[in-house]
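In this section we walk through a basic example: taking a raw amino acid sequence and producing a predicted 3D structure, encoded as discrete structure tokens. The instruction is simple. Fold the sequence below.
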Amino acid sequence: MDAVDVPGAMRLVMPGNVRALDPAPAMFDAMLAGWTRQQQSRLLARKTIADRISLVRRFALFNGTYPWEWTAEDVEAYFSAQISGPLPLAHSTVRGQQSDLRLFCTFVTDARYGWAAACLEEFGRAPVQVCHDWNTADHVADYEGRPGRRALTYDELQALFDAADERVESIRRRGRKGVLSAWRDAVLLKAVYAYGTRRRETAMLDLHDLRHNPRAKAYGRFGALEVRFGKASRGSPPKRRTVLTVPEMDWIVPLLTEWTAEVRAGFGVGGHPALWVTERCGRISLRRLDEVFSLVRDLAGLPDELELHCLRHTYITHLIEFGYPERFVNPPLRQLPRPGPDRTRHPHPSVPCDRPDSAC
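The resulting token sequence is shown next.
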């Protein structure tokens, strides 16, 4: 294939009849524009592309050099600085950024795109691959998250839900504005746990994503949750899955019934499809989800390292403890086990409990 036909090729980005007054920054910007086109042709998400471009610019700014001047020592100096500051990057973040930087170097050194030849002609130097096995981190662990990101204990989960409920009552007693928002936050946190949804999955839920389950008719339209914006694979659209309402967490059914039938209408959203809405009659944002969890977590006196995603860890952990098989816990979910003599229905209104009934 001719280099001019490859998305991101030098001749598609830089006009051949125009010479820049300052060729170095012009060449660098053109490289990034070409890499952007190449990634767009692979159907990568806009945020993924933007984050990668931002990383390359930060790396160049840190070293004060352009790609055709980079060396392996520059990589080591940059990432040493990133992990030695007051807020060091997580292991997974460092490995991801090193992978992105390696991809950029692979792009600009690939002869099909013409960037190496153009740099050699213009500056007398060509870019090289500066990320190799000796200065980048290996992926040797299945889980690279921070240790603080864990499942909540039953007592911590109960404390979180109690704090959310108390916040509603406190605002109501003081006659302050925000009762509906606090009510929404309390139901939202419980729903995140009851269905194990991620942040974006939660924010993008619509009313019509609440579905019936023919094997659990008593739950009505809350027998299943259709997640349409699941975590996507590289270059693919969001994954879809169906999360079923399990018997141990059917306490969420009356809460969602009350929210959808009565409380949500108080926001005056009219025909807006979102399940979780704001005071401005819009869809709740990812940032607001984090703020809600942090606020209630602090009210409950829980550790600062806990975050909203911990409720998903808690959901999975508790399903396993309840005896659900791995095939049910991992999406896609297709079967709803019926309650049996070996599957105790816990009487607590907010969260199931693994202690004796007398202790609940």
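Looking at the output, two observations stand out. The longest helix spans residues 154-174. The CA atoms of residues 177 and 300 lie 21 Å apart. In the next section we compare this with other chains.
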